[in-house]
Specification:
disordered N terminus; 46% helix; alpha+beta; 12 strands; 11 helices
Length: 324
């Protein structure tokens, strides 16, 4: 009897073991079925987009870029696509012309300091658009001044005391008369030599190289079609203009042709004198035109547009000449 009981216990354990194994195998079978279903679903979901893309074209994997992906951060979504693209010289010139061209000062050969005028600001911005550093751009302006200043030229040939400087022959004659009048008769009079005073130079050399292909605006109505961002606008005389600016925007839909410049007071009657004008001026505004139909700007000045490519090429040639 005890042996039969032991046998029945062993049989019972074996039965439990078999049921347990069957249970584990059943779990494995269910897990395998679930895994197969997930794999099938995954393959189907992966297949579905590929099938859809194959209907409309090949599917490409987007490349990682450093450009912003937040469209709300840009005023125009198209800027996102072009954010990593290199800027053209026209875009660079527009960007630089929207900033104060610091240090906006230079020195004559005698060490006399001078301040920028409108032409020098345009030259500075253009040099930086060519790829020159701000320091090098200012150095080019300084060389331009020293090359064109009659006072600097005279310093090399005939150094004389500052008291004999004169801006013109007329002022020189006045100085000479005063010198003769107040000099002692007992002392021998030293000859008074005419020497022009240092000045900012003229725009003729700049015009010769950089403004040589200027086109006149004969009617204000043609301004918006002629002026493009990055172009240069000059006033009065293309051979030696009295004012230069950079076109920074053109929007015919609202009738605006904006130009950025330096010392705009004389041409526009507004803006800071002898300094950078932070407010771009709308050249298309009728208040600035004396006779729009004949292309006459404020005070009867003629208006000329210098195409960007021509300006940049000519400026590059001028830089080469000044660097010799």
């Amino acid at each position: 009897m005890p042996g039969n009981q032991l046998g029945s216990i062993n049989n019972s354990d074996r039965s439990l073991s078999i049921r347990s194994n069957n249970s584990h195998e059943g779990d494995k079978s269910e897990s395998s079925k679930s895994s197969n279903m997930q794999n099938t679903r995954s393959r189907y979901l992966c297949f579905l987009p590929n099938k859809i893309f194959s209907m409309f074209g090949s599917r490409t994997t987007p490349q990682k870029t450093d450009t912003p992906t937040d469209i709300s951060a840009c005023s125009r979504p198209a800027e996102i696509l072009n954010a990593s693209a290199p800027k053209s010289t026209a875009e660079k010139l527009v960007s630089f012309a929207s900033q104060d061209p610091k240090p906006k000062s230079y020195s004559h050969k005698a060490g006399i300091p001078g301040s920028y005028v409108c032409h020098f600001a345009v030259m500075n911005w253009g040099c930086k658009a060519l790829g020159l550093s701000p320091e090098k751009a200012n150095d080019i302006v300084e060389k331009y001044v020293q090359n064109n200043c009659s006072g600097c030229k005279e310093d090399d040939n005939n150094p004389t005391p500052d008291s004999t400087k004169a801006n013109s022959k007329r002022s020189f004659l006045l100085l000479k008369a005063r010198h003769n009048l107040f000099s002692s008769k007992k002392k021998s009079k030293e000859p008074l030599v005419f020497r022009p005073a240092h000045f900012a130079g003229n725009s003729a050399m700049l015009s010769k190289y950089a403004y040589k292909n200027a086109v006149q605006v004969t009617d204000k109505a043609n301004l918006s079609s002629m002026a493009k961002p990055g172009d240069i606008v000059i006033f009065d005389n293309p051979v030696a203009p009295n004012h230069s600016m950079v076109i920074v925007a053109n929007d015919p839909t609202n009738g605006q042709v904006l130009a950025s410049g330096y010392n705009n007071t004389g041409t526009f009657g507004e803006g800071p004198e002898g300094d950078f004008d932070e407010t771009p001026r709308n050249l298309a505004d009728n208040k600035y035109w004396t006779n729009p139909d004949e292309g006459l700007f404020n005070r009867g000045c003629k208006v000329y547009i210098v195409p960007h490519d021509s300006f940049m090429q000519g400026l590059g040639e001028l830089v080469d000449v000044l660097e010799l």
